[in-house]
Structures are given as C-alpha cells and as structure tokens.
Amino acid sequence: AVALGVEDAAPVVPDSLTLPRAVVAVLRLLAARTPVLLAIDDVQWLDAASGRVLAFALRRSGALPIGALVTLRGGPSVSDPLDLANAVGGDSFAEIELGALSVGALRHLVQSRLAVRLPRPTMLHLHEASRGNPMFALEFARLVAARDDALGGEPLAMPSSLRELVRERIAGFSAEIRPLLEFVATL
User: Fold this and answer.
1) Contact 137, 112 (CB under 8 A)
2) Which residues contact residue 6 at a Cβ distance below 8 angstroms, ignoring those fewer than 6 apart?
3) Alpha carbons 136 and 115: distance in angstroms, whole number
4) How far is Cα 117 from Cα 145, in angstroms, rounded to an integer?
5) Rounded CA separation 172/169 (Å)
6) What is the Cα–Cα distance from 116 to 131, expressed in whole angstroms?
7) Is this prediction's pTM over 0.85?
C-alpha cells in the first residue's frame, strides 16, 4: 500500500522481503482479472533494488498469465540485471536480438511515419549516419525534411553524425531555454 501510494509510510522500516512480496501480491491480484504484461525499456538502467524486486516477483509468477517484455541495450557483453533466463527459463523465455534496419526498411519507416520521400543518396547517408537505428534515422529524416521545407524544396546536406544532429537541434532552441537543457542533462 505504501509503494502504491495508498498509505503513508510507517515509522518502522519493513524487512527486506516486504516490498518484493507486496509486488508479487499485486501482480497476482491483477493477473486474476486479466493477463499482465510488465514492459521495461532499457533494463540496464534499472536500479539494483528495483531489479531485485522485479526478478523476485517474476520468479514467483508461476503459471499465472504474467509476462515481461524487456529491452536491453549494449550487445552481448551487457548482462540482464533481472537474469530473466534463469528467473523464468525454459519455454517461457525467448530472447530476440535486434540488429540494424536495412536501407529499405528505413525508407519504409521514414515514409510511413513522416510521410517524407528522401532520395536514395540521402537514404544511404541516413542509413550510414544512423547505423540502421530507427529512432536515430527518424530524427535525421525529420531534420532533413524540415530543412527541405525551409528552403522550398532545395535539400541541404544531412548531418554527418548523431552528435552533429543533437548540436544542431540544441542550437535551434532559444538562449533562454539552454540553461534549463544543461541542467536537465546534468541530472
């Protein structure tokens, strides 16, 4: 109840199993009504305490309709802090490694999401600069499209790197907002 904000914290500190057991209880209550999916993006940034609680809960979910969809960045050298392979294991565990998108896949993504058609040389440059990362590719394409609109159809060169793209995006903000951006970045 305290973790969910329903009750105020008690003056007595609970033992180390109280919160993990409470999470299991909440998941069981939810799963009794409908299937539950825990979605965790960038699990490598999860703090250790939260990771322990979630791993504890997932190990105890048993046959309940509880699933986890977790993303992990960093390649094969980065380990899953939840250790899901051992927590759920067997046929209940599937790992999918996503690689870079092809030029054709990026073209489809840009056209469907941004309704922008970029010439093939620009798409090749976009693929190279983004390394096939769809999120980065969309940001590059947004910038190229905005530049194209600003010049009435005369395209400009695309930034050569994500660093240049971010630098250009930040330069577009007013001088008043930049200190706030710096403050947020340091947090």
Assistant:
1) no
2) none
3) 17
4) 9
5) 5
6) 20
7) no
